[in-house]
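Section 5: illustrative case.
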């Protein structure tokens, strides 16, 4: 992931702060580094006609939402609610007109709009996502929506590049906002609001539940697809299991091996730089936590066939997966989004229906159990976002500039809003394979 800088303050309308209802601005943003963030520094040009049409569509959408949207020219839209300040209406509409929701995210990165409570504003937008674009335009989606580039296909080589883009950023960066377990997936809390000091315990609760689903115990042969930084492998090995863990991130592999060695469990855990399609052998249990989102719809059958092939008869597979509504997944599955461009290239969140259909049509596995707990992910993301914000100076000290920090803040807030609105959910699955029990 590249980094860049905040758009110069000169880009917003002069004198806007003094107009009635104008969006206030605070602080002096850093200048954009066009070499690091070319599309943030110089957005694609949109014609006047397209910008005008976009402004009309955006106005119509915002007028009906429970938001309080303040434009720098004094215009105020919405039915009241969380505040959204548009500092540079021309740039804001131009970006959306030329790049759609990618432009909306880039406009935030550039400082062209802001919100005192970013999660609250994004939650309103996420809750109304299906209705933001007029239905006639939705039917023409293929004509105006950006399409995922061929280079982001999750082939074995493509997957390595896509995974490296996010997970090889910096172990030190992730350590700043994750808890001591370095778990980068939804925790499982006892109640809300969650106490940040208990995040590590909530992550262990999540991991232990997955290991229990997979019946991991003394002598269990475990295949983990997606190592992270090794916490699940450590807890499985502490139960007496023998773990083979696969990752495509060199940064994660190296630190996971260090942490496993420090726990005295290197004789029970092997961490390999290996694509899931290259896995060999059979295992009593397979565990994969929030890895399917990086597989891509094209390769979901391959992924689930791999689980089936690697699982011994009578074995159990525990999965944790983010999901989205089926109709939205179908409508957006080929689209190129802000998340694809800046955070998770090649990713796609499946639906519950897509998982069930793929398991049924391409494997001999059975879905024995599915439990949803999206509210827990919203709380997990809140704690991460708060930690990231509190340690902004430490992030900067690692060499990540202001536009990167705005990008990461938007990513965490955008994700949290998805779970708070119900647009996103997270599931724990138990898949089983017929055969004699262990």
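Designed sequence:
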């Amino acid at each position: 992931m590249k980094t860049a800088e905040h758009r110069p303050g000169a880009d917003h309308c002069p004198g806007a702060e003094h107009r009635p209802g104008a969006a206030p601005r605070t602080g002096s943003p850093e200048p954009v580094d066009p070499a690091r963030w070319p599309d943030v520094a110089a957005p694609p040009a949109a014609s006047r006609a397209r910008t005008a049409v976009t402004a009309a569509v955006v106005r119509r959408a915002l007028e009906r939402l429970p938001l309080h949207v303040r434009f720098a020219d004094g215009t105020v839209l919405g039915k009241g609610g969380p505040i959204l300040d548009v500092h540079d209406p021309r740039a804001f509409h131009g970006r959306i007109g030329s790049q759609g929701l990618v432009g909306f995210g880039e406009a935030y990165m550039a400082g062209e709009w802001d919100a005192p409570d970013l999660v609250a504003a994004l939650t309103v937008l996420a809750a109304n996502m299906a209705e933001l674009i007029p239905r006639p335009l939705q039917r023409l989606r293929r004509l105006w929506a950006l399409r995922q580039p061929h280079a982001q296909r999750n082939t074995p080589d493509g997957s390595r590049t896509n995974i490296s883009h996010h997970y090889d950023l910096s172990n030190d960066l992730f350590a700043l906002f994750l808890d001591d377990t370095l778990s980068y997936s939804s925790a499982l809390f006892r109640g809300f609001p969650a106490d940040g000091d208990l995040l590590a315990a909530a992550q262990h609760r999540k991991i232990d539940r997955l290991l229990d689903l997979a019946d991991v115990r003394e002598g269990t042969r475990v295949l983990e697809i997606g190592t992270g930084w090794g916490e699940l492998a450590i807890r499985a090995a502490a139960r007496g299991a023998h773990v083979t863990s696969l990752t495509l991130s060199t940064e994660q592999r190296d630190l996971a091996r260090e942490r496993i060695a420090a726990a005295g469990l290197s004789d029970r855990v092997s961490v390999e730089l290996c694509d899931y399609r290259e896995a060999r052998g059979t295992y009593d249990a397979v565990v994969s936590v929030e890895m399917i989102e990086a597989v891509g719809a094209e390769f979901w059958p391959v992924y689930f066939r791999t689980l089936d092939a690697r699982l011994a008869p009578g074995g159990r597979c525990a999965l944790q997966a983010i999901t989205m509504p089926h109709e939205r997944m179908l409508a957006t599955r080929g689209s190129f989004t802000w998340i694809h461009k800046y955070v998770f290239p090649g990713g796609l969140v499946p639906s519950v229906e897509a998982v069930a259909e793929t398991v049924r049509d391409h494997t001999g596995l059975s879905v024995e159990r599915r439990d949803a707990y999206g509210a827990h992910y919203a709380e997990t993301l809140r704690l991460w976002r708060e930690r990231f914000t509190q340690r902004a100076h430490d992030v900067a000290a690692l060499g990540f500039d202001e536009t990167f920090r705005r990008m990461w803040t938007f990513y965490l807030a955008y994700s949290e809003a998805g779970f708070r609105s119900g647009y996103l959910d997270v599931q724990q699955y138990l898949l089983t394979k017929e055969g004699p029990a262990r």
